[in-house]
Amino acid sequence: MAEKTRIKYFDTLKFLAILGVIFLHCFILKENILIINFNIVDLNQIGRFGVPLFLLISGALLLNREIELKSFFKKRFVRICYPLFFFIIIAYLFNIYARPLVAFWYCWMVLGAYLAVPIMNIFVKYASEKEIEYFLAVFVITALLYQTFKLFNIKYSLDLNFFITPISYLILGYYLSTKEFDKFPNKIILISFALFVISTILKMKFGNFFDIYPKMNLSSTLDLGILQIIQVSSVFLIVKNVYSEHVTGIFSSVKGFLETNIVNGFILSVSKASYGMYLVHMLFLKYYVRPFFKTLTLSSTNMVIACFAVFVALFLGSWIITVILGKIPYINKISGYA
Predict the structure, then answer these.
(1) Per-residue pLDDT tens for 91-142?
(2) Which of 88, 89, 274, 287 has its CA 20 to 30 A from that of 176?
């Protein structure tokens, strides 16, 4: 059976998403608690768009589709659960994580989001563009309000939990993938890049906003703050518009580079391996990377260099391992390579 046609910018987004996840993990050290500051900035914030970007991609690919519940859940849950359970068993057997069910939180969050996809799909299919924009406007306003309340320690009773969940990122991803904001993609790229830089700098200053759920005693591992929404949306729009047929100038050269056989092949391979890379790198992160950094006594500059070196090694190593596992009969079912 011929492979279904792939949309190139989605593969590039998956490439950047797993790149961002591994990058931020290499700059969060000391038993998952201390964020290396280097007396300047929290560099991990550069890669914080990774997890929400995966959600945006899922929303773009899964919403406004014809969904048959049985086949949808069988396909999606098998793809997520088989590799997840395999790596949880490995983590238990080698005592890599004391609580591997918690360590792989991202996978459980995605499964929860998938449960909502058939319901959100009905909303998206029958809602007008203005109705979808209304939902997203409340999402953005809610994130802004709760982040402001938390930042200034303001007491409140406003409960808008429904709008600040992974589901909102799904709908945002669908909207960004279908909305044509401008016939001139160069302008969108430049504006989006500026917003990415500004939001990232502000995140470096103010940090993450995980626990913004009111009245529920919940602390989400997913950042639902307004700065995160801006950062990840900017990445999505940059990549989408770079691949536009109307792109010109230097961005046209970037598009040409991305579409060369070697680069496009590498991006495609990483895209297919992205889920497996997430699972593989989580094991190496705990078993090798964090113990390695505990032994280092380096200056800030040398620590940055060490983090970048480990990031490159972890990214390439997890990719190679996932690709190899994906080519082994039977093992490929649990490799996370799709």
Answers:
(1) 999 989 888 888 899 999 999 999 999 999 999 999 999 999 999 999 999 9
(2) 274
Structure tokens at 310: 């480990």
Please give the DSSP secondary-structure letter assigned to residue 299.
-
Select from 197, 189, 194 the least CA-distant residue to 46.
197
What is the residue type of 78? Answer: V
C-alpha to C-alpha distance for 117 and 227, rounded to whole angstroms = 25
DSSP state at residue 2 = P
Instruction: Report whether 103 contacts 286 (CB < 8 A).
Output: yes
Torsions phi, psi for 28 (to 5 deg): -120, 110
Quote the tokens at residue 74: 């069988």
Structure token pair of residue 89? 């068993």
Asked whether the beta carbons of 29 and 290 are under 8 A apart, the reply is yes
Q: Is 328 left (phi over 0), alpha (psi -120 to 50) or beta?
A: beta
CA Rg, the chain, in Å? 20
pLDDT at 180: 87
Whether the pTM exceeds 0.90: the reply is yes
Could you please report the per-residue DSSP string of 40-96?
A: T--GGGGGTTHHHHHHHHHHHHHSSS---HHHHHHHHHHHHHHHHHHHHHHHHHTT-
Does residue 247 have a pLDDT over 80? Answer: yes
Q: What is the pLDDT of residue 1?
A: 37
Which of 202, 258, 251, 259 lies closest to 226, judged by CA? 202
